[in-house]
Design goal:
Elements (H helix, E strand, L loop, with lengths): L2 H14 L12 E6 L2 E7 L8 H9 L7 E6 L11 H8 L3 E6 L9 H8 L3 E3 L4 H7 L1 H9 L3 E9 L3 E3 L11 H12 L3 E5 H7 L16 E5 L10 H4 L6 E6 L4 H8 L4 E5 L1 E2 L2 E2 L1 H10 L4 E4 L3 H9 L5 E7 L8 E2 L15 E9 L2 E8 L1
Helix pairs in contact: 3-4
Amino acid sequence: MHPDEEHMKAALALAERGIGETWPNPSVGCVVVKDGRVLGRGWTGVGGRPHAETQALAAAGAAARGSTVYVTLEPCAHFGQTPPCTEALIAAGVSRVVIGAADPDPRVNGQGVAQLRRAGIEVAEGILQSQAEAVAAGFLMRLRTGRPLVTLKLASTLDGQIATGAGESRWITSEAARRAAHALRGRHDAVLVGAGTVVADDPELTCRLPHFRQRPIVRVVADSHLRIPLTTRIFASAAEIPTWLWVAEGADPLRLRAVAELGVKLMHLPLASHGVDLQEGLRALAKEGITSVLVEGGAQIAAAFLKQKLVDRLVWFHAPAVMGGDGWPAVEALGFDRLEEMPRFVRQSVQVCGPDIMSEFSVH
């Protein structure tokens, strides 16, 4: 492997540590190298600061002069809450900067590279670009489309059932699969469910893996007509854990006030055919800085996201069991008559979780 690729791979591994905790900023990794020795490493801090480059340069100190810096995303070139990373790199006297992916943010978008080159720094671009873009996928999706990256997570029997006809569902999958599901949740900025899931299961919607993440995951519930009881666990902890509610415009003002007093953030959305407008909801999340959302169901909201082609990634946990047609399906009817209308995906990976299988897919 070429040294540039080797060090960029290390920077990407650092960037992956911050996924889910750095929004609205991307999670970036940075490595400072001179004469084959790694002098400093860094990745984006919780909440998006400090930036990876400043952490890595601080670790390298004065030895950074004349070094090569590997960074997974084009360094920022604008003043925000912190000075531009390009200025830090120039002030440190580095000789070369190797970049994984370009930053399409209009405040950067080539300007970072241009500033470095004007300062006499050699710049190499596109090293392990596809891997770098995969790490920054949510951030890139938000900038390019105005909505977060959406992952739909489903857990079912082999024949796609999530509960018996009587509604019993705990637990279809194993403890190992549930740990993997919590890890998946912990790598997203937000988790989203429908009101029916909250009413039926009263979930906490937190990542319950010790020390997995520092920043609480944002909990989003689509509840157009405010039918969730105020006594649910998600409302009980809303003052400590960010809890956002998608509600229909014109909802009951007294009910809205009661929910808001619990610490819930209300997002007023237009109504669509089956609840609030999902696309408007995703745009509202993007405006708040959310870059990735894990949709955890139930069957109605899963179908709605699939029908509207709003699913970018699909993660399906299958338990080795068959329930039969009298169970509850993981996805409600999609209303398609022809095979060509079906949402199709490309399998990316398969992982064994105890007795269960976790399959990951990307959109076709």
